[in-house]
Amino acid sequence: MKIVSFNINGIKARLPRLIEYLTEQQPDVVCLQELKTSDETFPIDDIRAAGYGALWHGQKSWNGVAILAKGSDPIERQRGLEGEIEDEHSRYLEAEIDGLIVASIYLPNGNPQPGPKFDYKLRWIERLSARARTLLTEERPVVLAGDYNVIPNDDDTFSVRAMASDALMQPESREGYRRLVAQGWTDALRTRFPKGGVWTFWDYQAGAWQRDAGFRIDHLLLSPIAADRLVDAGVDKEYRGREKASDHAPTWVRLR
User: Is the pTM of this model over 0.90?
Assistant: First the structure.
């Protein structure tokens, strides 16, 4: 079972790339982030034509998450996180597919820092951690897949110096991510590549793709039962180099 996390960076603008990916790779589950479209304009007909059912939690022009399943409709479990009633950002969607619980996560960027956006990011990590802790108590296979906007380690970026002041790499961001993982989750990509040096994002600016100046911010965290089924994990890097591609590459885990 191949489960993919893919920040699509605008599903309407990248729809040909998404359909291309679904057709060529035939993943079983795809968690999308940064849809940048409302619920009403989500391209469900095109996705169904490619052989996938879907759930989505859209937001016009910003944010938005979705979960696609090959040949079936995901069963919704939860949308949004508890903890801030006034939070209207579409950043969390949770579903069940063939006995597997999957969440699509788009954690706040947090820039500029310090400031309100960074404070919101840290609160959001804590809210996610509370939900993750509850999911672990179910003792079921769970995958928390998404764009976490956190660079966990120095070897997860092309340049520590270049990213030193960014919200993605602040000590508070990293500590929040580490506390989450320490609940008992397995970072699939880190397990597969323990020495780092694997990127999932390359900025559009300054020739980052051409220079391979990227970093790892897309993560798939596995509950203990899911981790026991881990076969492989990786990044479909070539899709970042295609015409009008997202600035993220599809990041995946394969489970038995």
Answer: yes
pLDDT confidence band for 168 (50 / 70 / 90): very high
Amino acid at 149: N
Whose tokens are 């919704």? That residue is: 76
* Domain housing 177: 2-255
Residue 239 sits in a domain of what CATH number? 3.60.10.10
Q: How far apart are alpha carbons 253 and 231 in whole angstroms? A: 8
Q: Are 240 and 1 in contact (CB under 8 A)?
A: no
Calculate ∠ Cα 31-118-186, nearest 5°.
40
Consecutive H or E run containing 173: helix 171-181
- Which SS3 state, helix, strand or coil, does residue 39 take? coil
Query: Six-digit token pair at 88?
Result: 């209207």
Please give the helix or strand (H or E) that residue 119 lies within, else none: helix 116-137
Burial of 173 (0-12, 13-18, 19+ CB in 10 A): buried
Number of structural domains (the chain) is 1
Beta bridge partners of 106: 147
The alpha carbon torsion through 199, 203, 208, 214 (nearest 10 deg) reads -20
The share of the chain scoring above pLDDT 90, in percent, equals 99
Per-residue pLDDT of 57-88, as tens digits, reads 999 999 999 999 999 999 999 999 999 988 99
**Angstrom distance (rounded) from CA 136 to CA 164:** 33
**What pLDDT is stored for residue 100 in this prediction?**
98
Catalytic residues: 106, 147
Residue 169 CA, distance from chain mean position: 17
